[in-house]
Write a structure and sequence with these properties.
Length: 95
């Protein structure tokens, strides 16, 4: 099973908290939002690949996050190429 996590938004409503940090990598408790989601996904038996779609602004943040994961071999970070909220693709465009 393939899992797609859409994380290409710019979270402007959460500024200044998300000005230099993507919302999915903000911590809730001791873990990032992405980690909480990943915990739920990894319970599923047939997950063989996890695609995280992000934007160019936060691509490196997600690559660093991936390197810390045990499951990093199954996680692929994809850059949708957008650099700001004005050229974002939206959920359908990112898929």
């Amino acid at each position: 099973m393939k899992v797609i996590l859409l994380a290409a938004g710019y979270a402007t409503r959460l500024y200044p908290l998300t000005k230099n940090q993507p919302k999915p990598l903000l911590k809730v408790g001791e873990k990032t939002i992405c980690d909480h989601i990943l915990d739920k996904v990894m319970v599923l038996k047939d997950v063989d690949q996890i695609y995280v779609i992000t934007n160019d602004k936060f691509y490196s943040h997600f690559c660093e996050w991936r390197e810390e994961k045990e499951e990093k071999g199954r996680i692929q970070i994809l850059n949708d190429g957008t650099k700001n909220e004005n050229d974002r693709l939206g959920a359908i465009g990112d898929i």
